[in-house]
Design brief:
By secondary structure, the chain is of the alpha/beta class. It has 18 helices and 17 strands. The strands form 3 sheets. The protein has a 9-stranded mixed beta sheet, sandwiched between helices. It has a 6-stranded parallel beta sheet with strand order 14-13-12-15-16-17. It has a two-stranded antiparallel sheet with strand order 8-9. Helix 2 crosses helix 18, helix 5 packs across helix 6 and helix 11 packs parallel to helix 16. The relative contact order is 0.10. The structure holds adenosine-5'-diphosphate (ADP) and alpha-D-glucopyranose.
């Protein structure tokens, strides 16, 4: 079996969120399990592409409407990622210092068409095409219906939905950018009077997966307009929980940490990382440290934070540290709070991979009051590093965190509300006071196995049903 993953992000090459972590690790684990698994993604202008050298393995041009656009397929000259990776180089559209932007329709259409042009002429074609999210959602449609890809129409396709909030909608005027197909199939592209790449992928892919079983169930009731489609296609849908790359996310070897640690050296290791955070962000090491890492958007419940932090800091003797970026008004609210709670609260507005690792290793609790969380990787990283998660009971959070009151290892609240999150913070603060129990719990959660082994196997099992 030979699987080709189509994606917009892949760690360590280009990362905006968890999609990158998944596509940067799942193929590695699939290769270990004996399935040849590789990745194709856009060639961006970023640190990774500047620091590595590439060779051209294919050159051609595509038609995007009236425009003729040259492209190249590149591969790494030296590759130690654990899987083969191919890049679509379309200089004027894709070679940018960002992944997503306002003109994504043209950019990702060019990516998908160029990638399929290359696949179409390969002597050894993939036996499975695995697409991730709406940026690659027109691949199954084009493989099925576009005349020039007729030789690909028997290759099984799998779509993984990492986030159904974003669907890649564009207007019917742009349909002419898609390579020619029989117009009788035009309805497949449509959902609610616009072209909807995610909906088209759900209709055309042979199998559809989401990144946790609970999220699959939730999508039938709440999928940003796609509820009835997902309910209709339920027979080919399933949820497979994400794993984590336990080589990258390993507190014993993590080069980003101030001090690495194992379960045996957890106390001194975590203390060194917490001390660094507290020195750097002017916080008191003796107080329980609550943290958040992530995108500052409504989905993550981030709009609630200014109020949650203000109330919790007045009520409890705690510290709070936030790392993230997103909506301007949320960022502003979080900045404004700094002067009021100097010495107890701080925030780094931006993206910082190293800092995120130190927070997982040094904070006592990690907040995740998400309104929507298809899987969530942060809680899995937190567990592996001994940080206790405080989560809203939805999606992947529901599938991975059990409340302490139910013989579990985290704090679970049932609404993404200021009141309930503040209550969970209070419960956690009380739990922290009993240091022997708190420390025992930290050591315990480090042992929970969320590595990819089981889930990578579940994907392979699904592929096997298609070949
Ligand atoms: P999502 O993909 O919805 O953003 P996930 O929980 O699946 O959420 O994954 C988020 C990933 O992005 C994690 O690896 C997390 O550590 C990382 N991350 C998010 N925001 C930041 C940030 N500001 N700086 C560093 N890493 C971040
Ligand atoms: C999406 C989801 C997140 C998930 C990630 C990786 O970005 O929002 O919950 O963990 O994809 O699948």
């Amino acid at each position: 079996m030979n699987v080709l993953h189509f994606t917009a992000e892949c760690y360590p090459i280009a990362k905006v969120g968890g999609l990158a972590d998944v596509v940067g690790s799942l193929p590695k684990y699939q290769n270990k399990l004996g399935v040849e698994s590789s990745v194709i993604m856009p060639f961006y202008d970023n640190v990774f592409t500047k620091q590595h050298s590439f060779k051209t393995i294919f050159e051609s041009s595509i038609h995007l409407g009236d425009a003729i656009i040259d492209f190249k397929i590149l591969s790494l000259t030296e590759n130690d990622l654990g899987f083969d990776i191919f890049f679509v180089d379309v200089p004027e559209l894709l070679f940018k210092d960002y992944v997503y932007s306002y003109d994504d329709t043209d950019r990702f259409l060019a990516f998908q068409i160029a990638a399929l042009d290359w696949v179409a002429q390969l002597e050894h074609k993939p036996t499975i095409v695995h697409c991730h999210d709406h940026h690659t959602g027109l691949v199954p449609f084009m493989m099925y219906y576009a005349h020039k890809y007729h030789m690909l129409n028997k290759i099984p396709t799998v779509l993984t939905i990492h986030n159904a909030q974003y669907q890649g909608w564009f207007s019917h005027d742009k349909i002419s950018l898609i390579p020619a197909f029989d117009m009788e199939h035009i309805g497949v592209l449509d959902w609610d009077n616009s072209v909807n790449p995610l909906a088209a992928a759900i209709k055309c892919a042979w199998r559809v997966t989401t990144v946790s079983p609970s999220y699959m169930e939730e999508l039938k009731r709440n999928a940003n307009g796609l509820e009835s489609l997902l309910s209709h296609e339920t027979a080919k849908c399933s949820g497979i929980l994400n794993g984590i790359d336990s080589h990258v996310w390993n507190p014993e070897t993590d080069a980003y940490l101030i001090k690495t640690f194992s379960r045996k050296s957890i106390v001194s290791g975590r203390k060194a990382n917490k001390k660094w955070l507290c020195d750097e962000f002017n916080l008191d090491i003796n107080k329980p440290l609550f943290a958040f890492i992530g995108r500052l958007v409504g989905e993550k419940g981030a709009d609630l934070f200014p109020q949650i932090f203000d109330i919790s800091l007045q009520k409890n003797d705690i510290s709070i540290l936030l790392l993230g970026s997103g909506h301007d008004d949320i960022e502003q609210g979080l900045e404004d709070l700094k002067s009021k709670h100097k010495g107890a609260y701080n925030a780094y507005i931006g993206y910082d991979e190293k800092l995120s690792h130190i927070i997982y290793a040094g904070a006592d609790f990690l907040l995740m009051p998400s309104r929507v969380e298809p899987c969530g990787l942060n809680q899995l990283y937190a567990l592996r590093y001994g940080t206790i998660p405080i989560v809203h009971n939805i999606g992947g959070l529901k599938d991975t965190v059990i409340d302490i009151s139910e013989k579990g290892f985290g704090f679970v609240h049932h609404e993404a509300s200021v009141e309930q999150v503040c209550h969970a913070i209070e419960r956690a603060t009380n739990f922290y006071q009993n240091q022997p129990t708190f420390k025992k719990m930290r050591t315990l959660i480090m042992q929970i196995d969320h590595s990819w082994d089981a889930s990578a196997q579940a994907y392979i099992h699904l592929y096997n049903t298609l070949n």
